[in-house]
Every structure is written in structure tokens, then in C-alpha cells.
Amino acid sequence: MSVTVAALTSTAMGSFLSRSRRRKLTMTLRSDTVSVTPTEILTKLKRDCATPLPLLQQVANAMSADMRAGLGPGPGPGPGLPMIPTYVDNLPTGNEKGLFYALDLGGTNFRVLRVQLGGKDERVIATEFDQVSIPQHLMFGASEELFDFIASGLAKFASNEDGRFHVSPGRKREIGFTFSFPVKQTSIDSGILVKWTKGFAVSGTVGRDVVACLNEAMERQGLDMRVSALVNDAVGTLAGAEYWDNDVMVAVILGTGTNACYVEQMSAIPKLTEHVSSSGKMIISTEWGAFSNGLPLTEFDREMDAASINPGEQIFEKTIAGMYLGEIVRRVLIKMAEEDALFGKSVPPNLSTPFILGTPVICAMQQDYSGDLHRVGSLLYDKAGVESKLSERKTVLEVCDTIVKRGGSLAGAGIVGILQKMEEDSKGVILGRRSVVAIDGGLYENYPQYRAYLLDSVKELLGTEKSNDVVIEHTKDGSGIGAALLAASNSIYNQDF
Ligand code: BGC
């Protein structure tokens, strides 16, 4: 009988683990009586994660239905998806001029950016950005500390403006604030944080207006700038992509977390009665990470969810987004190791550390096409201290592929659900014309297999003819410029420069 000590060390996902950490170190005993072989576990995993066309269609239908339910009347949270009205009712036109800043908080990094806009002819005259990683302790600390850190980064960046950038006399520098967490927006420049996601657990922000939090921190820094637009990263991506291509109708983020937004008719938003939109439209942030209807889930998903800081929440996100794919794989491998000596007699201790296999690691393993899967072997060894044989490496790759295929295919079904809802409500808005879905995020950008599964799923669901109308485009870092553009189109000063 072999004995493993599951050492729960601190990782980048510390807050996610807080419940586990409170537990004492546990002893994992491997039973002498062999119960389930890796092949049997793999077969069951493939069955549980399968995404045949009828299932994908059901998911797309359920996504459409939950979107509609979420737009229904009442103060919410009601049934269906959060479907957050963003108060963005006019997308940038290209006429925007002047200097604008963007501040982007949404994952482990925060970015600051400035852009000098030159109107229709000159468009983006100059742009510059800086990126700072957020110290781990700030993700679990007090609200003021996090906002002070952001404001001081912004102050430092703003103090280094070179001659290419100039603000019109008498004006404050305006900011588009990309805040990529579920926020109940109350106007274009204010919104209350509903909850943290993606492993953040900062105390004292939920229930507060995040723009007020930033303003207070800027005041403490003596920084006199003005937030003119509060935007989600999906919304910033839509605005940024639409600036160059007017056919963009939907934007999707597939990175650490996930979300999608789209252009909705005001008449289809019963929950927003008092707002008058000059365009008759508004961008809705679906917060589709909260979706959960009819997903093919496994025991590994349920265990990961139960150990998370937000059990029962963000189930779609936990199935398709970058923060979680590697962790699901690790949980499957641990079960194979515990049940039937995958990786030798004892369970490799490091493999018991939650989040030790990040999604970038499983992605790198899947790019190994060598005969002996050398790279898979060295990654398993470097990241999890695992010594492996060729047959074991092959099993690992099959597990990765199963989880990534499910994630990519379901993301594709979600996209089709949005397109379907838009087309059902306004015939011709998507089909019979060119409609662009702009996607950003490291998972989509850097994981070729995930991207291919997503594209296959969209194509399979739409069929060849309809998929000719739908263009899926990668928009890199569009959300920063998008947020600056939204600050410009919602500037407190008039647009006459
Ligand atoms: C958040 C969304 C965000 C998405 C992508 C999710 O966890 O709830 O607001 O857009 O991550 O960053």
C-alpha cells in the first residue's frame, strides 16, 4: 500500500483553495485492491464529456432561452442569465478625437493605456500601454488596498506622457475603466459589484460602486482624472472591434474567465423601462459564465466546484474557461494515479497540489507531436514531479483532449445560442448578411485545439450555408482601446475639438 501526503501549498489560485487549505494535510491511501483502470476512467470520462450535435443544439437552445429569461421585467436577479444592461447605446463612430485613457482590471494583470484619437481620417494617432501584475495578496486583501494599487499605477503611467499625447486645455483626462467582473451597471459611469469571480476574494467591494472606489483611490493619490465609462472586457472588445468593422455584433472573452456581449434592441429588454436610447439599441453583457443548463458535467467538475470559493456558481465558466481546464485534467490524473498506479507505485505528491497543472501547461503538452512525447514527459516532470512512461503520456494527452474538446465545443454552442436568439427576435440581423463575432482572450488565442473545436462546433450547429454568413474573428487586446473609445464617445465634454 502506498501513502501520499497531499501538501496543499500556496499557488496562484490561493483564494480558490482557501477551503482546502483550512483542512489539515491529508493522507491519500492507494487501495491494494485494484478498482478502476485508467482506461476505464478514460472511457467513462469521454462518455460523460461527450458533446454530440443534439447535446450542443440543446445547449444553444438553453442559452437562447436563458438570455430571454434574463432580460425579463423586474429588478432581478430573476431567472435566466444576469443579462446586464451596459448603458452603452452608441458604439464609437470613428469621429472620436483627443486623448483618452483606459484602465483594465480583470485577471492577474492590470493594464493602463492611453490613446490619441484623430477622428475619421487619422483614427488612432498614437497609443501606449503598461502592464503590471497584481500581487497575490491584493487579490484576497481589502478593497482600498487593491484600488490604491491601481490608482498609483495609473498615476505613475499618467505622469510619463510624451509629446505625442495632449489633452485639450481646461479638460480633465478621461478614463474608460474596464472592470471584468459581474457589475450591476447603474449608468455608463457607475456600477455595483455583484460578486467576484476568477479567484478574486477582495473584501469590502461587493455591493459598492466600483467607480466610486476608484475615484476615492485617485483622490488619495492626488490624481485628477475622470471615469467617463465603466465597461466589461467583453463590451470593450465589442467597441474596439466595431471601430474597425461595423459588422461586429457579438464579442466573446475566452481567457482566465469567460463572458459574451451583443447588441440588443431596446424593445427586447423589458427589465430596462426607464432608459431612453437614442439608437434604440444597447449592448447587453450576458455574463454567460453563470449559465449551467444541460451541461455534460463529471464527478471531477463537481469536486472542483465544491472546493471553489464560489460553489454552485459560474458553472459554464468552470467548464470552458482557462482558469479551470488544467485543474480538471489534474483531478482526472490524480484519480487514475490513486486507483491504478498511473505514474508508478505511489501517487506523485506534487500532483495533489490544486492548480499545479495550469491550462498553458496542458496546451503546451498538446503541441508535442514527437514520437516519444518527450515534451509531455518533461512538462509532467517539471510541473508536477511526475515520471512517466510513453503509454502514460498518451493517456495524459487523451485526458487533455477530452476536456479541451468539451470546453471548445460548448463555447461554440454558447455563441450559436446568442446568434440564434438575435436572429429569432429580429430576422435578418445575423443571417443573410455578414455578421462578425469578435473573440479575445489567451485561451482562444493560444490554444489551437480549443479554437478548432470551437469553430467546428459553430459550423456543425449552423450548417454550411448559415456559417458562411458568420465570421469568427480574433481581436487582440481590443478591450483597452474599446474602453478608451467608449470614454471618448461618452465624454462629459462635447465632441467639438
Ligand atoms: C466575469 C466577467 C468577465 C469574464 C472575462 C468572468 O469571470 O464574470 O465579467 O467579462 O470573466 O474576463
Task: Jot down its keywords.
single chain; 497 residues; alpha/beta; Hexokinase, domain 1; Nucleotidyltransferase, domain 5; 2 domains; six-stranded mixed β-sheet; five-stranded mixed β-sheet; 16 helices; 15 strands; disordered N terminus; binds beta-D-glucopyranose; glucokinase activity; Hexokinase
Give a structural overview:
There is one protein chain. With 497 residues, the chain is of the alpha/beta class. It folds into two domains: 1-85 and 245-476, Hexokinase, domain 1 (3-Layer(aba) Sandwich), CATH 3.40.367.20; 87-231, Nucleotidyltransferase, domain 5. Helices cover 41% and strands 19% of the residues. The protein contains 16 helices and 15 strands. The protein has helices spanning 18-22, 38-49, 53-71, 119-122, 143-158, 210-221, 233-244, 299-306, 315-320, 322-340, 359-366, 374-384, 390-425, 442-446, 448-467, 478-489, and strands at 3-6, 26-29, 84-85, 97-105, 109-118, 124-133, 173-179, 183-187, 190-193, 225-231, 248-254, 258-265, 281-285, 435-440, 470-474. Strands 3-13-12-11-14-15 form a six-stranded mixed β-sheet, sandwiched between helices. Strands 6-5-4-7-10 form a five-stranded mixed β-sheet. A two-stranded antiparallel sheet has the order 1-2. α2 packs parallel to α13 and α7 (233-244) packs across α16 (478-489). The protein is globular, with a radius of gyration of 23 Å. 49% of the residues are buried. Mean pLDDT is 90; it is low at 1-29. Bound molecules: beta-D-glucopyranose. Residues 250-488 form the Hexokinase C-terminal domain. Pathway: Carbohydrate degradation; glycolysis; D-glyceraldehyde 3-phosphate and glycerone phosphate from D-glucose: step 1/4; Carbohydrate metabolism; hexose metabolism.
